[in-house]
């Protein structure tokens, strides 16, 4: 087992020029938690990691594993042609809220709608990054360009504050083919903030998750069930 420790400042220095344009659209404002470039690490990981590293799993710290993480690595084998990232859906109506203006202008849209047929957005607590595929995908790398980011944020009237998660969500609305959607049991989010903030009527459509949980995600400081 080989452990390599990376210097945060060094990584941020490499990241900043790549993600600078994104930060104004997907950060909570200058000097705040998510405005730091490091929260966009996953977006540009393929440009920072050595070429010999071809696949990475990136996870949040507020997780509890109920199965061997090796099984999650096997999910790379399920990526459809053209997909570069494995990610689970967001399990709260946060993006129903964020895309309110686009939804109002496009009443028939699936953007922000709950699963199984809607596009609820993504949660970046558990990420499978196929770095090799990310490097080779012309489409994905075009989407990192400031002009493309600007174009999409204007189209969707998007202003977020959740870093990489917002970028992946917005891109997923336009190009779902870039993503392999992980089953909710691989990122069983527990936060219920939006239930009490105006969305109690639709909350459960987003929050339900069938099957045996493999990874619990105690997001927004939610306690994780004891064994």
Q: What is the terminal separation in angstroms? A: 28 Å
Helix content: 25-40%
Report the mean per-residue pLDDT as an integer: 94
**Radius of gyration of CA atoms, rounded to a whole number:** 17 Å
Give the domain tally: 1
**Overall geometry:** globular
Counting helices, strands and paired strands, the structural category is alpha/beta
Number of strands: 7
Compact description:
This is XXLT1 xylosyltransferase. Helix content is 34%, strand content 14%.
Features:
single chain; 227 residues; alpha/beta; 4-stranded mixed beta sheet; 3-stranded mixed beta sheet; 10 helices
Task: Summarize the structure in words.
- With 227 residues, this protein is an alpha/beta fold.
- It has one domain (8-217).
- It contains ten helices and seven strands.
- The protein has helices at residues 8-26, 45-48, 69-73, 94-98, 100-105, 131-136, 138-143, 146-156, 164-174, 203-207; strands spanning 55-59, 63-65, 85-89, 122-130, 179-182, 188-189, 215-217.
- The strands form two sheets. It has a four-stranded mixed sheet with strand order 1-4-3-5. It has a three-stranded mixed sheet with strand order 2-7-6, with no helix packed on it.
- The longest helix has 19 residues, at 8-26.
- The protein is globular.
- It starts with 7 loop residues before the first helix and ends in a 10-residue tail after the last strand.
Topology record:
Elements lengths: L7 H19 L18 H4 L6 E5 L3 E3 L3 H5 L11 E5 L4 H5 L1 H6 L16 E9 H6 L1 H6 L2 H11 L7 H11 L4 E4 L5 E2 L13 H5 L7 E3 L10
């Amino acid at each position: 087992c080989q452990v390599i420790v990376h210097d945060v400042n060094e990584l941020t220095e490499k990241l900043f020029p790549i993600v600078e344009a994104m930060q104004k659209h997907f950060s909570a404002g200058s000097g705040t938690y998510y405005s730091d470039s490091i929260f966009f690490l996953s977006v540009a990981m393929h440009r920072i990691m050595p070429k010999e590293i071809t696949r990475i799993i990136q996870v949040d710290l507020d997780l509890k594993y109920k199965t061997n993480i090796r099984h999650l690595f096997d999910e790379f084998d399920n990526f459809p042609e053209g997909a570069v990232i494995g990610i689970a859906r967001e399990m709260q109506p946060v993006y129903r809220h964020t895309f309110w203006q686009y939804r109002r202008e496009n009443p028939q849209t699936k953007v922000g709608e709950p699963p199984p047929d809607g596009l609820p957005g993504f949660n970046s607590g558990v990420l499978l990054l196929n770095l090799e595929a990310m490097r080779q995908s012309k489409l994905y790398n075009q989407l990192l360009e400031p002009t493309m980011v600007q174009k999409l944020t204007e189209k969707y009237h998007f202003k977020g504050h959740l870093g990489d998660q917002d970028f992946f969500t917005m891109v997923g609305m336009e190009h779902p083919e870039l993503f392999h959607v992980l089953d909710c049991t691989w990122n069983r989010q527990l936060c219920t903030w939006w239930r009490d903030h105006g969305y109690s009527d639709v909350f459960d459509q987003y929050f339900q998750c069938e099957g045996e949980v493999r990874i619990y995600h105690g997001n927004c400081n939610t306690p994780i069930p004891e064994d």
